[in-house]
Amino acid sequence: MRNIIAIFQKQVKETFKNKTILIQFIMFPLMAIIMENTVKIEGMPDNFFVNLFSSMYIGMAPLTSMASIISEEKEKNTLRVLMMSQVKPMQYLIGTGSYIWGICMIGACVLGLTGTYEGKELVAFLGIMAVGILASLLMGAAIGTWSHNQMSATSLTMPVMFVFSFLPMLSMFNEAIDKIARLVYSDQIYTLLNNMGYQSGYQLEIALENVAVVGVNMAVAILFFAYAYKKSGLA
Amino acid sequence: MNQNNINQNNIKSIVALSNVVKQFGEKEVLKGISLTVKPGEIVGLLGPSGAGKTTMIKIVTGQLEATSGKVMVDSSSTEMGMMMDSLGLYERLSCYDNLKLFAKIYNIPVERIDEVLKKVGLSEAKKRPVDKLSKGMRGRLALARAVMHEPKILFLDEPTSGLDPTTTNQIHELILEEKAKGTTIFLTTHNMAEAEKLCQHVALLHEGKIIEYGEPKEIGRKYNHQKKLQIRLYDGRCMELLNNKEAAEKVQDYLAQELLETIHSTEPNLETVFMELTGSMLE
Ligand SMILES: Nc1ncnc2c1ncn2[C@@H]1O[C@H](COP(=O)(O)OP(=O)(O)O)[C@@H](O)[C@H]1O
Ligand SMILES: [Mg+2]
């Protein structure tokens, strides 16, 4: 536990000075605030921008920041120094992951409050976001572990991030894309948000498909992580 | 291979390698290394770039596994301190915050941070982020981190490589201070003078083999085939004489004439020994 807290605190300071990561956390909530307050189209459903940007946020921020932090630590050899001083890989991942998760949840709160969510709906919204952020984190941890340096992490993160963050939006326009998009967690999160957020009297409806896809996505991320970990270790 | 030269006295060794082989794919980087380190001494692993020094340190510290052979280290990993060639510092964090992370991990009081920063001469720069430090300062910070938990054994991989003479000397002082506390130190270097100055024992590593082992002076004497005398006279003449009977007579003459200012017997240094053994230079 002591190690987890130490890693967490280190990550707070480190991220604060890491502009490329900081911008990830701020960009989508900020865009949602701006769009929700400036763009008003007749007949546009409630929370249109909030839901859209929330699913993009989930597809992008946790994934890229986790991948970038881990791969940078590998590249700069700091992770090895941690491991050599008896920090367990799990402690490192929990310390770093819980921080990213926490900061993304703050972003999720901003997103939720920007929309018309309140009370029970807000809780449901945050619950959905919490799961989505976790899935994204796992994916990012897998990519970071797989890569030996930041460069290779970025080249892997880019396409993956595009798939996860833009498919939900593209699927609105195209049936064929929608069929594929259904297989990724961010699209299912988007569906969940829309199901409860598009009409007033929000009702959280969770279908088996939503749970199954998100669950399978997480399982794939964990397997990919385990494989990457076995291949090259954390350091 | 001069395994006979390895001192096998009865003090329990803190590190013992026996016939360690390391292969990376087809390439054999360490070809049967045997070496022991006694508690409290500084042992230097000396060799040119690519000899396998870093690989050896990684094996001893458990960062790599040997392909075959035995590795014994009588110290838990929390009792080790190390400074590898890539220092592994957090670039965006200050000196202080870099050490604070490890103070927490090692569970040592935070007061210790200022203590070690002062010791390595970084008190002034404690708030400065690592990416604004000079190379020498980074090295000293990495050394501070390596010793802050008072390890039983310290591994230093080329601790002064690429540093200016002043910083090099500062680091030498710090290393000797650690030794004075009883810390065992295992260091690698491609700098002969450094090995001669710091180490009780050195192992010369060449292409994955230890080609010579012993006390630096001892090795020097062993390869002292030429046994020259360097003489300087009051009239300004300097000469090199072979260390034999003829020279003795000459020296006697000079002494009688009160001409002799200085007289030295020369010993080859590790550099010349290395040259003789391998036909190649260290750097
Ligand atoms: N991970 C690795 N994979 C393949 N070859 C390696 C690896 N690490 C080191 N080597 C090779 O092993 C040899 C010794 O390297 P190293 O131990 O770093 O030497 P030194 O530290 O003495 O300069 C070099 O030829 C290097 O290319
Ligand atoms: Mg090296």
Explain the overall architecture.
The complex is a heterodimer of chains A (235) and B (283). Chain A is mainly alpha-helical and 235 residues long. Chain A has one domain (2-37, 44-231). In chain A, 81% of the residues lie in helices and 0% in strands. Chain A contains 10 helices and no strands. In chain A, helix 2 (19-38) packs antiparallel against helix 3 and helix 6 (119-146) packs parallel to helix 10. The longest helix of chain A is centred in the first third of the chain and has 28 residues, at 48-75. The model of chain A has no long low-confidence stretch (mean pLDDT 87). With 283 residues, chain B is an alpha/beta fold. Chain B folds into 3 domains: 3-79 and 151-221 and 272-278, P-loop containing nucleotide triphosphate hydrolases (Rossmann fold); 87-138, no CATH class; 225-266, no CATH class. Helix content of chain B is 33%, strand content 27%. In chain B, the strands form 3 sheets. Chain B has a 6-stranded mixed sheet, with helices on both faces. A 3-stranded antiparallel sheet of chain B has the order 2-1-4, with helices on one face. Chain B has a 3-stranded antiparallel sheet with strand order 11-10-12, covered by helices on one side. The two termini of chain B are 22 Å apart. At the A-B interface, helix 1 and helix 4 of A face helix 2 of B. The site of magnesium ion has 5 residues of chain B, from helix 1.
